[in-house]
Amino acid sequence: MTGQVRGVQLARLLGQWHALPGRRRSPDYAALAGTVRGLLADGRLPLGVRLPAERELAEALRISRTTVTAAYRQLRETGHLASRRGAGSWTMLPGNHRVASTGLWTPLDDREMLDLGVAALAAPPQLLTAARAATEDLPRYLGGAGYHPTGIIELREAVADAYAARGLPTSADQIMVTSGTQHALDLVLRLALAPGGSVLVESPTYPNALAALAGRRARITTHGLAADGWEPDLLLGSLRQTRPKLAYLIPEFQNPTGHLMPASLRERVVAAAHAVGTDLVIDESFVDLPLDGTELPPPVGVYDRHSRVISIGGMSKPYWGGLRIGWVRASAPQVQRLAAVRVGVDMASPVLDQLVAVHLLADADAIVAERRVQLAVQRDALLGALAQRLPDWRVTVPRGGVTLWAELDGPVSSALARAAEEVGVRLAPGPRFGLDGTMERFLRLPFTLPAADLVEAVERIAAVRYDLDRTGRQRWREPAVIA
After folding, report:
1. Three-state secondary structure along the chain?
2. In this structure, what are the phi and psi dihedrals at residue 199, rounded to the nearest 5 degrees?
3. What's the average pLDDT block by block, 10 residues per block, for the chain (483 residues)?
4. Less Cβ around it within 10 Å: N or C end of the chain?
5. What distance, in Å, lies between the first and last C-alpha atoms of the chain?
């Protein structure tokens, strides 16, 4: 269980939950239950949290207890609430649901679902060949215990060589292999950020990074990205004014916007970070995926002279998410400290997976080239479908990565995501990529599905977007003015 939500807290989350005057299609208890289900569906109300007592919620909402009692009863009937006499009621979802990668709970039998909540590709055909070769290499490791806290030497050398090829000389001692990029970030935060420490992040940014920072109880400040990317003076000013312990940045095809940070700003960010004592955590998850012949700037680490830059990356985006291989590039002493931290988490990454990664990296040029061609075709198919079916949406064409960041024709992102789920399309609405529930005018759309699926998904999205208008726009609360 994740805790308890008080009546006043749930009332704030519910907002204007009741049926609109003159358009009452259902009783208030049904409207209340439906809004709670919506909060669960988009993740704003956690699962396993205890709801306030009926009397407490009734007082907070200024409604009768009978209405709350009926709403709770309906939630229990639909499988969204579990109650025990004398103990309370806890949020849940029906038993035929599972947690999806977006954080949503989704039906187990959703094979027809077009999942645009996941920004990752299916496995490349070369994976099977790499797996077979890895099993042939495995016997030479079987005589040992199998624990390699920093990773097997072959993989560390391969990753170091890839950094060197990008213009950043790196030794194997500067590489630590992790169980994915998210694991790499978690270890770095455990080492470099005390609970309650200050962190600067972009807005919007990667939701799972925000989750990791929340786990450290970080004090987060944000740098808002403009339509064309980072505002240099504002970003540097934020570093100098807030002097955060860490800054988490995604300079290559930023997730979710797709922006690419220019070389001049990379150098200035490193200099500013050194001046104020900030460590930079640079997420390079998409660095292998420039499109349209885009030339990449030097890695941020090229400008580091004081061990202020810690780079993280992995194989989920260019290769396959099911291969849980990531890494950290840092100074050799930092890598050793990370290894000491890791012992309390998971000891080491699987040897067999690392051997598979070695063989994939040996064939990186061919595999990644095919991925880039595939992604360019799928991106263009998605852009074409959006232009035809949703011409009022504004999208900047990304020069790489796997996602579009679409500005919608109204603040309907969460409502659209809920409606799209009903027609077999899973979306990641804009508020998931920020801290405060804003960005309702935005939607992340990955182009990682086959082109035909992307076109079909846009058709369904366009249909439910039209239906949102036909059934009446949601009323938005007028902001209060305090003079």
Report:
1. CCEECCHHHHHHHHCCCCCCCCCCCCCHHHHHHHHHHHHHHCCCCCCCEECCCHHHHHHHHCCCHHHHHHHHHHHHHCCCEEEECCCEEEECCCCCEEECCCCCEEECCCCCCEECCCCCCCCCCHHHHHHHHHHHHHHHHCCCCCCCCCCCHHHHHHHHHHHHHCCCCCCHHHEEEECCHHHHHHHHHHHHCCCCCEEEEEECCCHHHHHHHHHCCCEEEEEECECCECCHHHHHHHHHHHCCCEEEECCCCCCCCCCCCCHHHHHHHHHHHHHHCCEEEEECCCCCCECCCCCCCCCHHHHCCCCCEEEEEECCCCCCCCCCCEEEECCHHHHHHHHHHHCCCCCCCCHHHHHHHHHHHHCHHHHHHHHHHHHHHHHHHHHHHHHHHCCCCEECCCCECCEEEEECCCCCHHHHHHHHHHCCEECEEHHHHCCCCCCCCEEEEECCCCHHHHHHHHHHHHHHHHHHHHCCCCCCCCCCCCC
2. -140, 140
3. 77 78 68 86 74 92 92 90 81 61 48 86 96 96 94 98 97 97 96 95 94 93 91 93 96 96 97 97 97 96 95 96 96 96 91 98 96 97 97 94 95 92 92 86 96 96 85 45 35
4. C
5. 42
Q: List pLDDT tens digits, range 196-237.
A: 999 999 999 999 999 999 999 999 999 999 889 999 999 999
Query: Which two three-digit tokens encode residue 14?
Result: 């519910």
Q: Is the model's pTM score more than 0.85?
A: no
191 DSSP β-pair partners: none
